[in-house]
């Protein structure tokens, strides 16, 4: 599944050097071995401090900017990656950080964040809270007075970020992803976001596989710690907590 995701990331026309950033834990030796076999760059760092891992990776690869795409997004659309990177490049240096998550509008599992090496270094030097270290970028988007922050919304005007779940945490997520690949990959390995939506429209039972987890995010357990409760999803979650 990780290799399939890497294939999709590499199809982004704006993808630079693609690197798998994994931990130093022995359990992740299999990840490094996969990268060696497939000729993929691999960097290993802290298991829990991903901010440290990503900063040291950026230094190792002499990056001007870093694009962070979680490895639990095996259905990510390369066109979505291009839209976010393209927006950052078009407006450079107007923004330190651009994502499609604040607020999110694309189906969950199309997460893209791009930030300058300067912003990453500032976060690495100053972030103190555990979730800021674990999730790499919260220190940046939690401090809009320190960083110039941009966001890309889905050009369709739709917001399906809480309706569809194309990421993986649960067994049902894996079953859903397998169904999508089984139906689309053989005839069209380059299938994208709209192909998945069409498949689900024709076969609504596929969406039901993991529907009960739609709208659940890592920050659900950190709402009392977050400062930027400024979009309607955060406000809704805050009120429900």
Account of the protein in words:
There is one protein chain. This protein is of the alpha/beta class. The protein is 41% helix and 10% strand. The protein has helices at residues 2-10, 29-38, 50-60, 78-90, 117-126, 130-134, 138-141, 171-184, 193-202, 204-208, 232-240; strands at 19-23, 41-45, 65-68, 97-99, 113-116, 149-151. It has a four-stranded mixed beta sheet. Helix 3 runs antiparallel to helix 5 (117-126). The model is unreliable at 229-241 (pLDDT under 50).
Topology:
Layout lengths: L1 H9 L8 E5 L5 H10 L2 E5 L4 H11 L4 E4 L9 H13 L6 E3 L13 E4 H10 L3 H5 L3 H4 L7 E3 L19 H14 L8 H10 L1 H5 L23 H9 L1
Question: What's the quick description here?
Answer:
The chain has 241 residues and is of the alpha/beta class.
Shape verdict: globular
The total of beta strands comes to: 6
Number of helices: 11
Overall pLDDT score: 91
Order of helices and strands: HEHEHEHEEHHHEHHHH
- Share of residues in helices: 40-55%
Taking pLDDT < 50 over at least 5 consecutive residues as the criterion, the unreliable ranges are 229-241
Distance between the termini: 33 Å
Biggest sheet record: 4 strands, mixed
**Strand sequence of the main sheet, in spatial order?**
3-5-4-6
Strand content: 5-15%
Q: Mind telling me the C-alpha Rg?
A: 18 Å
